[in-house]
């Protein structure tokens, strides 16, 4: 339904065929949505972006869709962020559709923890390893080097600590299973790709419902971690390559969704049609097409236009 937004909307531009489209979908605090929207529209016009239409996606829903004939997506995201904080947002240069591929990071995205940090606690090394993890996720350290350093510190830890860590520490983020189940029900392939470890990711993928897992493998000998990795490193380039390879198998025109929170997710976010930063570090958020900051992971379904009645409870 149309949304009354005041004088700034009085001159509708229309959305004739042939115009480039810029679409933003926004979830923000409803109590001050209309007031702040007037100010946001004025700010957009001051930067050369004229709004064509503002509508709520469904009756009684909470997703506001803004349509513009043209403009810079980065300016649109920046302007909306400055007026609506916190918010859930997705900006696209074309009409938004349910993707055919979903590729997601695991740690601090599909689960609320960084697995290596929690595992390090069983070795009495959590503060040291967590500090390295944080710098790597902020983009301050080379990820492969930081990964090798952290894994090296775990040398000698009993492999059984992984099972205890999984049971005691690792929990899916709210809405994760519903997000994956609903996307799969709508014909979307789901892939979990992580700079973490198969020891954790395989179990998490099974619990949440992902169809494929890509990650690193911890080397084990005699029931203890050796401090090394078995096989090649899964890093930022792996995440991007996985998305591109999976998309190529689906064929031309298949929409893709990528999600992550850290600097090593940036190439994947940028390669996806819809790159969404989930409660992310600043560099990842700046590189993404949108973000989730206000709601849980089911907010992604709302931004994609999937009505609540069509969500698959999990």
First CA to last CA: what distance?
A: 30 Å
Strand order of the largest sheet: 2-3-1-4-12-11-10-5-6-7
- How would a textbook summarize the main sheet? 10 strands, mixed
Q: What percent strand?
A: 15-25%
Number of strands: 12
Overall average pLDDT: 93
Unreliable parts: 4-17
Count of helical stretches:
12
Radius of gyration: 21 Å
Q: Helical content, roughly?
A: 25-40%
- The global form is elongated
Structural class category: alpha/beta
String of helices and strands: EHEEHEEHHHHHEHEEEHEHEHEH
Describe it for me?
This protein has about 325 residues and is of the alpha/beta class. It is about 35% helix and about 20% strand. The protein contains 12 helices and 12 strands.
In short:
With 314 residues, the protein is an alpha/beta fold. The chain is built from 12 helices and 12 strands.
Q: Which key terms come to mind for this protein?
A:
single chain; elongated; 314 residues; alpha/beta; 19% strand
Question: Which SSEs are present, and which pair or pack?
Answer:
Elements: E1 22-27, H1 33-46, E2 53-56, E3 64-68, H2 73-83, E4 88-92, E5 101-104, H3 115-121, H4 126-137, H5 143-153, H6 160-168, H7 176-185, E6 189-197, H8 198-208, E7 212-216, E8 218-221, E9 224-229, H9 236-250, E10 256-260, H10 266-271, E11 274-278, H11 282-287, E12 290-292, H12 299-303
Parallel strand pairs: 5-6, 5-10, 6-7, 10-11, 11-12
Antiparallel strand pairs: 1-3, 1-4, 2-3, 4-12, 8-9
Helix pairs in contact: 1-2, 3-4, 4-5
